Amino acid sequence: AIETTLSILKPDAIEKNIIGKIIAKFEEKGLTPVGLRMVHLSEREAGEFYAVHAERPFFGELVEFMTRGPVVVMALRGEDAVNRNREIMGATNPADADAGTIRAEFATSIGENTVHGSDSVENAEIEVNFFFSGTNLFSR
Ligand code: CMP
Q1: 63: left (phi over 0), alpha (psi -120 to 50) or beta
Q2: Does any ligand 1 atom lie closer than 6 A to the CB of residue 111?
Q3: Tens digits of residue pLDDT in 86-139
Q4: CA 135 to ligand 1 center in whole angstroms
Q5: CB-CB neighbours of 34 under 10 Å
Q6: How many CA atoms lie within 13 A of 12 on its CB side?
Q7: Rounded-to-integer distance, Cα 15 and Cα 108, Å
């Protein structure tokens, strides 16, 4: 089915000046940006977005990293977009990511792993709505 999922190009992606290369990978593999903007998250916004991880030992580090500079938030649409996005990103830990994936190619570590993608259709809806109202999604 055609789905819409959330992608975040994390602060390390902006610092490395590779947002164009990352967006090109999604486009080449059949996902289309239908919403896109740059935002510098506050601690509160990052904490709210990652609330499911609030009890994890790395939560503080995660919020600190996600707020150290701007991110690009992007809604991606296409056939099976949630799984497709995850395949294109590769495993959370770049050491485990398959060759050719974004994380294998660009990520620094499990924490600074360049991209976020929604992990399920349910969460994709919640995460897209977190950043985009219906009126700022653009379909072709
Ligand atoms: P993401 O897909 O954005 O969702 C939660 C993030 O937590 C994950 O990517 C990682 O960047 C981060 N994360 C997961 N495990 C660890 C860890 N052990 N140490 C630091 N960050 C982690």
Answers
A1: alpha
A2: yes
A3: 999 999 999 999 999 999 999 999 999 999 999 999 999 999 999 998 788 998
A4: 31
A5: 19
A6: 17
A7: 12
